[in-house]
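Aim 2 progress update. The chain analyzed this quarter is reproduced below.
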Amino acid sequence: RNIFDVSYFFVIMLILIQLFNSIITETFGQLREQKQNFTQQLRNKCFITGVEKEGPNFNKHIQKHNVINYYNFILHLASKEEIHLTGPEQIIWDNLSLGSKDKQIISLDFCPT
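Predicted structure tokens:
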């Protein structure tokens, strides 16, 4: 009877361990696939407009995204009171300031260019 109980417990534990192991492996596989899809989209499309990177016209397309406009927009956000920001401006400001309440600290990692 004891041998049967121990072997039953051992088999059930092996099945449960394999089940959790497969769930964890599948989850990491899905995360890896999502990351690969995201990096592939960044490489093959314009970050701003989603235009495919095809042919020599793409460089002209990129030049249309004037970096000065982004800088002016950041200055515009910095000059406004936080209570007067619109919804999209608030989201962008939160991403730029990384949640810092001090308007002197701005991270430009969020900017696409």
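The helical segments are 2-44, 57-64, 67-79, 87-97. The mean pLDDT is 79. These observations will guide the mutagenesis experiments scheduled for the next reporting period.
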